[in-house]
Amino acid sequence: MTLQTVLLVAAALFCVGLYGAISQQVVVMVMMGLELMLNGVILAAGAFWWFLSPAPDGQVLLLVVITAMTVEMAMGFAVATLLHRSRGSDMTDMATDLSR
Amino acid sequence: MTGALTQVPAGWVPLAAVLLLALAALGATVDGALAARAQGRHWGSGLGLPMAETARLLRQRRRRTVAADRPLWLIGTGGLLVVALLMVVVVPLGRWTLSDLPVGVVWFNAMDVVVWALVWLAGWGPNSAHSLVGGYRFLAQALAYELPLMFAITAPAVAAGSLAVGDVVAAQEGLWFAVWMPVAFLVFCGAVLAFSVRAPFSAPAGADLAGGVLADSSGIDRWLLLAGRWALMAAGSAFAVAVFLGGGHGPLLPAWLWSLVKTGALLAVLVWVRRRLPTVRPDRLLPFGWVVVLPLVLLQLLVVAVVVVVGGS
Amino acid sequence: MVDDIVFWGLAVVSVASGVAVFRVDSMARATYALAVSFVTVGLVLLLFGLDYLGIVVVLMMVMEMAIMAIYMIMFMGMNPALMPMSMVHGKRTAVTVAGLTFAVLAAGILLVDWPERRGAPAADLTLSLGHAVMGSKMLVMITVSAVLFATIVSALVLALPRGRYDTDGADDGDRASGEAPS
Amino acid sequence: MGLRRRLTAAAVRRATVLVVEVPGWGRTRCAVEREIRDRGWRPAASPADADVLLVCGRPGARLAAAVDLAWEQLPGPRARAEVLTPSGASAALDRALDGLADDDGQRADAAARPGDPAMGIGADEDPDGDDAGSGHETSDEDSDDGDSDDGDSDDGDSDDGDSDDGDSDDGDSGDGDSGDGDSGDSGDGSDDDGAEDDESGEDESGEDDADDSDDSDEMDMDMPMPAGIPLAGGGEARDGLEMDLLHVPLGPVLPAWPPGLVLHCTVQGDVVQEARAEVLPPGPDAEPDGDLVQGSPADRCDRAARILTVAGWADAAAAAARLRDELLDADGPGSSRPALDRLDRRVRRSWTLRRSLRGVPAAAGNPPAGDVHDQLLRHLDQARHPREGGVPTPVATVPLDRLPDLVAGQELAAVRLLVAAADLSPATLVRSGAGLS
């Protein structure tokens, strides 16, 4: 467990999330991708803190990332709900069309 | 972290599990006795209930449902017992504790949140309308009880100036926290009933849903769910004893025995409460939780914080 | 040594479940795969001695994913599991971009000459985090936070329109008669 | 061997019983419930929970089919019995107990379950002969079905119901259709008695047919879906979000539910949007043994017990049921009076109960007025103060077709409370033929 290995894992998580965020069509799935990217960021921030400078202030950065994630989630839910409300369930409509 | 507690090696985990199951069985036994009395039989005739039910469910076959999400269902059913055990990991038994995590209070909180996921998965797994509605009900209910629960357990942590359960217990040397933060204590007891899905918070497994999350499980699956609920209730009581009722503090008896006696007594009281109260519908619970209980707990927390600030400076 | 084994185990689970999020067909499974990924990262933070933050990550993310699952199922009305169909657009671009990013990041991680560790972790990290956030005014902040939160909640309650189940006893009858199905 | 026998002995000490009442056999049901209580057994909440299926009365063809479906859902070891008179309750339970304790018999039953076409269904009672075959062959399929509790007569519906919120599961149903990696864990494979595994998916269509004939109601979308489970349609929900509609029939095999009643609900989330009610009649040549006298103190207590059961207050419900049985014995409140007063006080004082029941419209009177809490208190009141001369205060029964209007727009829990409290009289409805749709 060195800084490099942890960062590699974090980069892997970040890139999987990036793939999801780019490729998914549905808002909530895009959100999942973003979450996964932030997950990687958290891991990286933790690793930087531990391996480079385990000073108290460093933890605050992590706290900020976690908060950002929560806010992103809340906003995401709100946006998804609004989209759903205003456009109706386009996905479901699509499904019916396909089946006929 | 704390000098008062001895951390025992992980080899003692099985003993903790046995103790937890014994407490769970105690809860079920009290419940059986109370039920027998309510039905007009001698209370003694209900004492064998947990054993008889265990035998019955061990003999029963498991049920399958069409298009069930088997792995998630299994996680949901089996997880409850595991989470209950993880909860008691940070609860000291007298002087001993399995792990005196410096953030034990937060750990307990995190484990209780895992129950959200597990109950919902148990409802989701069987692919049946009733159990699914039960799972959703639990989430609705969880939103109502979780924040009050969080603030309720924050109060003793603030008073003790530490998130370690050992420190919280040590801070109650003279005066139990339950005495001067009664609101937080009562809210926490309510939350224990809620995350173990007991009346008045039993709507997710309610009779009106034919058993809700329990509706489609039988045999060992059902046993795991039922035992998990009782174990959660026991773990919640044990934690309440540690953070509100002075843990092992008490005269005469050794500390570990005090912990057990208090836990058993609190558990019995909670079982009694559960039998006294009808279920509250979850949609009526949410406004109550947020509009009434949450401000009360916050007020309690405010009082505690002011006392600590004033007393500390 | 033990730390290494635990770390690698957690790392593998974390990345694997991260990949699973976009591979499985079931919304419930995808959501909970993401939850597993978060939980493992939270546990890795515990390895770094970040007890509080690690457990908070577990706590918040499990809670969030439990709620997320509802949204997933609600808004993914059309589910790939029901009718196998691709919900993905620009798959090739996405893979390329993600792969390139990973290559760049990995190169950077491996090539940069990381500085030596400076300083040592505080004895009580949770306390030091508190001090870092709130300075010496922590106790005051504890008091204020309760007040602030109470204000937020009351503001929300006042501002909230009627929801799906606004049942305040007497209203129910109105609703039942007023909203007969179309 | 000794261990096994001891396990069996312990296991049957507290059997759970799923009681099914056929309209017209109310007194028999009361006797059965009393016997269960006195033995320290437990009424089951759903077929999955039950060891014993006890039918009070002789069901008509459709009700019998529903009962048979429920029977298939009992996980086993299982036993089944029929009671026709109150005095037969004890003997029937003894019979069921013998069946339960018979290890060899149970093993044979388990082994015979998948293929045996005659399993649990008397051919003469089957609703329509043509479908009987398919219905039987898929019987184990049905037993696996998602909806243990509701209706049981209508698995097909509940399946499609689940399909929209449970959609993600469908890939696993074992058909291997979607080719996703999950189909391996289709649940069937991992179970203990492998004998039932074989036909997990292929009979779906047959099953649906059988069920549709059962309840010929659905405006079902019958487009073929991978797992044989049709996709749900959408519809506007009351908070402005569009949500899937599913069809969930409630009843007739449901505890604390009016006998024989089936409520075909269209549910959105947990809100019932539309419903259709009907009552499944008893067998044509059956001689009903008798109901509780409508409006008598015992009948009032029975209704109160039903409401309290659904409200999730087992102890108060048990108290009400005990009072009912005492009143049935004594014919007049006399000695039960103190206990009645106690129960009344307890119910009146309960703040949580009021919170749950207030505002759920009552299906009582004409036009319906008040809420379920009023209704519960009224029942207890009337039980305490029966009219002079022993003539019971009549219950103003609500016509069956009022029920759907009342139920529409209510949440599932409210619907259960509403129906449990509804002043219906299925037996009368059946006699007059009004219950048949």
TrEMBL record, chain A:
Compartments where found: Cell membrane; Membrane
A Pfam family it matches: Oxidored_q2
Membrane-spanning segments: 6-22, 34-52, 58-83
InterPro entries: NADH_UbQ_OxRdtase_chain4L/K, NUOK/Mnh_C1-like
GO-annotated cellular components: plasma membrane
UniProt keywords, alphabetically: Cell membrane, Membrane, NAD, Quinone, Translocase, Transmembrane, Transmembrane helix, Transport
UniProt keyword Membrane, yes or no: yes
Membrane topology according to the record: Multi-pass membrane protein
One annotated GO biological process: ATP synthesis coupled electron transport
Catalysed reactions, semicolon-separated: a quinone + NADH + 5 H(+)(in) = a quinol + NAD(+) + 4 H(+)(out)
Gene Ontology molecular function, alphabetical: NADH dehydrogenase (quinone) (non-electrogenic) activity; quinone binding
Recorded superkingdom: Bacteria
EC number, as in UniProt: 7.1.1.-
Presence of keyword Nucleotide-binding: no
Subunit organization: NDH-1 is composed of 14 different subunits. Subunits NuoA, H, J, K, L, M, N constitute the membrane sector of the complex.
Family: Belongs to the complex I subunit 4L family.
Biological role: NDH-1 shuttles electrons from NADH, via FMN and iron-sulfur (Fe-S) centers, to quinones in the respiratory chain. The immediate electron acceptor for the enzyme in this species is believed to be a menaquinone. Couples the redox reaction to proton translocation (for every two electrons transferred, four hydrogen ions are translocated across the cytoplasmic membrane), and thus conserves the redox energy in a proton gradient.
Descriptive protein name: NADH-quinone oxidoreductase subunit K
Species per Swiss-Prot/TrEMBL record: Blastococcus tunisiensis
UniProtKB/TrEMBL annotation, chain B:
Similarity annotation: Belongs to the complex I subunit 1 family.
GO MF term set: NADH dehydrogenase activity
Matching Pfam families: NADHdh (PF00146)
Protein name: NADH dehydrogenase subunit H
Membrane topology: Multi-pass membrane protein
InterPro entries in alphabetical order: NADH_UbQ_OxRdtase_su1/FPO
Cellular location(s): Cell membrane; Membrane
Alphabetical UniProt keywords: Membrane, NAD, Transmembrane, Transmembrane helix
GO annotations of cellular component type: plasma membrane
Residues that span the membrane, as ranges: 12-34, 71-93, 105-123, 143-165, 177-197, 230-249, 255-273, 285-310
Domain of life: Bacteria
Entry keyword DNA repair: no
One BP annotation, GO: aerobic respiration
Main location: membrane
TrEMBL record, chain C:
Residue ranges the record marks as coiled coil: none
TM stretches of this protein: 6-24, 31-49, 55-74, 94-112, 138-160
Assigned EC number: 7.1.1.-
Pfam families, A to Z: Oxidored_q3
One GO MF term attached to the UniProt entry: NADH dehydrogenase (ubiquinone) activity
Keywords, in A-Z order: Cell membrane, Membrane, NAD, Quinone, Transmembrane, Transmembrane helix, Ubiquinone
Catalytic activity annotation: a quinone + NADH + 5 H(+)(in) = a quinol + NAD(+) + 4 H(+)(out)
Compartments where found: Cell membrane
Gene3D superfamilies: NADH-ubiquinone/plastoquinone oxidoreductase chain 6, subunit NuoJ (1.20.120.1200)
Topology within the bilayer: Multi-pass membrane protein
Primary enzyme class: translocase
InterPro entries xref list: NADH_UbQ/plastoQ_OxRdtase_su6 (IPR001457), Nuo/plastoQ_OxRdtase_6_NuoJ (IPR042106)
GO cellular component: plasma membrane
Family stated for the protein in its record: Belongs to the complex I subunit 6 family.
Functional note: NDH-1 shuttles electrons from NADH, via FMN and iron-sulfur (Fe-S) centers, to quinones in the respiratory chain. Couples the redox reaction to proton translocation (for every two electrons transferred, four hydrogen ions are translocated across the cytoplasmic membrane), and thus conserves the redox energy in a proton gradient.
Protein's recorded name: NADH-quinone oxidoreductase subunit J
Organism of this sequence: Blastococcus tunisiensis
From TrEMBL, chain D:
Domain of life, source organism: Bacteria
Annotated stretches, region: Disordered: 104-236
Compositionally biased tracts (Acidic residues): 139-221
Ranges annotated as biased composition (Low complexity): 108-122
Name assigned to this protein: Uncharacterized protein
Organism for this UniProt entry: Blastococcus tunisiensis
High-level lineage: Bacteria, Bacillati, Actinomycetota, Actinomycetes, Geodermatophilales
